[in-house]
Specification:
38% of the residues lie in helices and 14% in strands. The chain has helices at residues 14-26, 36-56, 69-81, 99-107, 127-133, 156-163, 239-274, 308-317, 337-343, 346-350, 363-377, and strands at 2-3, 61-64, 90-94, 113-117, 138-144, 170-174, 194-198, 209-214, 280-282, 298-303, 320-321, 352-356. It has a 7-stranded mixed β-sheet, with helices on both faces. A 3-stranded antiparallel β-sheet has the order 9-10-12. The structure holds 4'-deoxy-4'-aminopyridoxal-5'-phosphate. 4'-deoxy-4'-aminopyridoxal-5'-phosphate (PMP) is lined by residues 68-70, 98, 100, 144, 148, 174, 176-177, 198, 209, 326, 328.
Length: 384
């Protein structure tokens, strides 16, 4: 099997599976129990939180371990907005967010003045539009760090600078495709109010994610239950999940630079060879300015005249796995918002596949993908 879909999910690494087994077997107790076994479990849970803070150099953040990044994004946005229901305060996000942000903002349109920032052809938000949209009534801005469809990297450092004039406005960053994939430390993460991370994209397990939030923020509970995890993630805590989540974040951040060097070679090789393909174009740097930054882990390809689904199934028959749009929305047959935002071209939206690269892929696999596409698309290169 040749798996080019690590943006959707990744195979858990053996070290994490072992750690899960060890922790669940030795410490399966309820961390909220008041006897020693419970207290010991709780203390391990606290250590997992501290480990995330240490890895991300966070000194003023509280850590929650919700069950997915989707939950983390919901808890973050509702956590801020539920304090302001009905006030019509302004909240700002982008057209290219993951549905777990975009659809939450959509659901808030009745109670809030919602602004969606456009992107340029390279998938980068317009900072002037952000500046013009901000006002004293703005309480929240959500911007994803790395887009999950085309891999564009947003200028989070500049956004932090712009928001300094609006101390009341909180910044929420969905960093799911950024952690372990780009260098995070160009930015002081303490300056981001709310950060979302997912563990199953990194070689960790499904079922645990992180929401890191500034401990001065009073987040409103969105779920009703007992008081676990500040009442924001009520329900019995998943100690083994949290321990593994903290570990995979640590491993991914520690190995980020080395992994990026390897994956960038795969990406460059893929991009070089795409030249050989008939009617295939990259969905990045469409502006031809070549200034935008992209993750090395995501390559989006427009295959003119072919439905992405058909291409995906052809590749599947050859034991190659890529995706059409994001796995979360690909069953809905909607045209991808990100592709529309960069191109305003429905055909491009229908005919784009996402190739996700990872340290588990090889140059030979990239060659096999290109050769298979070549065989499928046939002929001599002719379009662009
Ligand atoms: N945000 C981004 C940018 C993502 O890529 C994803 C997963 N596709 C999510 C959020 C949701 O992650 P999860 O599967 O953990 O809910």
């Amino acid at each position: 099997m040749i798996y080019f879909d690590s943006t959707a999910t990744s195979k858990p690494i053996p070290e994490i599976i072992e750690l899960y087994e060890k922790t669940i077997n030795s410490c399966w107790f309820n961390p909220s129990s008041n006897y020693t076994l419970g207290l010991r479990s709780n203390s391990l849970f606290e250590q997992a939180k501290q480990s995330v803070c240490k890895t991300l150099k966070l000194t003023n953040h509280e850590i929650l371990f919700p069950s997915s990044a989707t939950m983390a994004n919901n808890i973050a946005i509702f956590g801020i907005c539920n304090n302001y229901r009905g006030t019509k305060k302004r909240i700002i996000t982008t057209f290219i967010e993951h549905p777990s942000v975009y659809n939450v903002y959509k659901s808030l349109e009745k109670d809030f003045d919602v602004i969606y920032l456009k992107t340029d052809n390279d998938g980068i938000i317009d900072l002037n539009q952000l500046k013009e949209s901000l006002n004293k009534e703005t309480i929240l801005v959500s911007v994803m760090w790395v887009n999950n469809i085309i891999g564009s990297v947003q200028p989070i450092g500049e956004i932090i600078e712009i928001l300094k004039q609006y101390p009341r406005c909180k910044l929420h960053v969905d960093a799911v495709q950024a952690v372990g994939k780009i260098d995070l430390f160009n930015v002081d993460l303490n300056k981001i109010d709310l950060i979302t991370i997912s563990s199953h994209k990194l070689g960790g397990l499904k079922g645990t994610a992180v929401l890191a939030y500034n401990n001065k923020i009073d987040l409103a509970s969105h779920f009703i239950g007992a008081s676990q995890q500040k009442g924001l993630v009520p329900g019995t805590m998943d100690l083994a999940g949290a321990v593994c989540c903290a570990k995979i974040i640590d491993i991914s951040v520690t190995n980020q630079k080395e992994n990026d060097i390897y994956v960038s070679k795969l990406k460059n090789h893929l991009i070089d060879r795409i030249e050989e393909l008939n009617n295939v174009q990259l969905n990045s740097n469409l502006s031809n300015k070549n200034t935008a930054l992209y993750s090395n882990y995501i390559v989006s390809l427009f295959i003119k005249g072919k439905r992405a689904e058909t291409v995906m199934h052809y590749l599947e028959k050859k034991d190659i796995y890529v995706s059409i749009g994001s796995a979360c929305s690909s069953k809905q047959q909607t045209i991808d918002r990100t592709i529309l935002s960069i191109s305003n071209d429905k055909d491009r939206g229908i005919s784009s596949i996402r190739v996700s690269l990872s340290v588990n892929n090889t140059i030979e696999e990239v060659d096999y993908l290109v050769d298979t596409l070549k065989e499928y698309l046939g002929g001599v290169k002719n379009v662009w």
